[in-house]
Amino acid sequence: MFYMDIPARRRFCLMIVPLLGLLSMVCVTPAWSADSRRCVALRLDEDLAHGVGYGLKKARWQGAEFEDSGMVTIQPRMAGLMGPSVTLLSRDVRLAVGLHQTSPQELWQKARWNMERVGGCAPPPVTSLKSLGRAFYWRVYADMLTGFSRFEPKILERTRTVAEALFTRPYGFIFGGAVAGTLNDNTSALLLSGDTRPPVRRDIALYSAHPEVERLFASWRRTPVTDLHLAVSAGWLEEMYGGTGAEVVWRPFGSSFWAGADGWAVWRRDPARIGNLPFTGSARFTGQARIGYDMPESRFGATLAAGRFLAGDYGAALTMSQGFDNGARLEARIAWSGYQENQGFFRDTRLDPSVRFVWPLGGSRHRAVEATFRQVGRDGGQTLDRPLPLDRMTEGFSAREVARHWPQMLD
């Protein structure tokens, strides 16, 4: 049986972050720079097509010679993950980048994907503030949660402001943190439900009573073989839970389908302590296996997941999402589990429907509004709010997303 006492859990989460940070500083080697094989580093918010185009233009600026015969292979990488490599004819690259006589569409027709995996794609030493700036990300958003109740008050809602930051380091190390402050909350009625079972989400009011550390985690990500991506994360993973876990995603380039799985050993965070940082109670295991479908020539996707939820219940969830060109995203989810709720709508059906909408403000990647409509405080069918989900992070590696951005790759 997996067990750690509370001091041991605290020491574990406090030690894992600086340990991974130390490893990320010493694991640095030069990157590939040969004319025919090049690695390009993508930001977390950068699409693969533009990264490939920038890599080709940078090679030209550095005096690379693209002969009429031969091939050029570009290997994209993003925070330790390897995207699909693309191999192009050297002559076409010279005509497109140097003379502007070949269009991106013509490059696409002759491109060959994953013909060669370029090794040695470690980043060069970080020596400038500009390089550090490319590794830092921040975002501030309004988090609005609304739901309905059969009791008073009829409408439950909570509004928070969340500020989060991410810092990527060499060899796939990512460090993230976020703080949150509640602006308005009326969910305290859920504390009077009379349910004697351990709470999962229904004590949300306790976590909204004061400013808190939303997340504080370290993650390591890798692509051991083509199209197979791994992630290991540890720390304070979300508002109510912390611990450690792993994710795996298999996303074959050229296929509309992908598969993945994740598993987590987590503990509840103590809402009575400063920042909700200490852990309390015993370990819980949660995890799901999932398959996904990305509809070609669209921004629509669907995911079917099944496994163990946070309350120890088993079930399945179907999620459908629609992306928009301005960065907005609409998600609809319905989950079923064997957990019987004591109150609320859909309590007899054991269904948990929800709708979530993310809207960037002013076209900025740094400010947004996130609105969720669901049965607030439901305990059944609840999943961990994973930090930087691997399936979402690798979505840009799909042929659909690469093709969508490819016509503007040289802009």
Q: What key phrases describe this protein's structure?
A:
single chain, 411 residues, alpha+beta, Porin, 2 domains, 13-stranded mixed beta barrel, five-stranded mixed β-sheet, 8 helices, 18 strands, elongated
Strand content bin: 35-45%
Please give the CATH architecture of the largest domain.
Beta Barrel
List segments where confidence is low: pLDDT < 50 over at least 5 consecutive residues: 23-33
**Total DSSP helices:** 8
Overall average pLDDT: 87
Structural class by helix and strand composition: alpha+beta
The shape, in one word, is: elongated
Q: What is the total domain count?
A: 2
How far the N terminus sits from the C terminus, by CA atoms, comes to 56 Å
Order of helices and strands: HEHEEEHHEHEEEHEEEEEEEEEEHH
- Reading side by side through the largest sheet, how are the strands ordered? 6-7-8-9-10-11-12-13-14-15-16-17-18
The tally of strands reads 18
Largest sheet: 13 strands, mixed, barrel
Structure, explained:
There is one protein chain. By secondary structure, the chain is of the alpha+beta class. It is built from eight helices and 18 strands. It has helices spanning 6-26, 48-61, 90-98, 104-110, 129-134, 204-207, 390-393, 399-405; strands at 37-41, 71-78, 81-82, 86-89, 112-113, 136-148, 155-169, 173-185, 212-225, 228-236, 241-250, 257-269, 279-294, 300-308, 314-323, 329-337, 351-360, 367-374. Residues 23-33 have low confidence and may be disordered.
What's this entry about, in short?
The chain is α+β, with helices and mostly antiparallel strands and 411 residues long. Helices cover 18% and strands 41% of the residues.
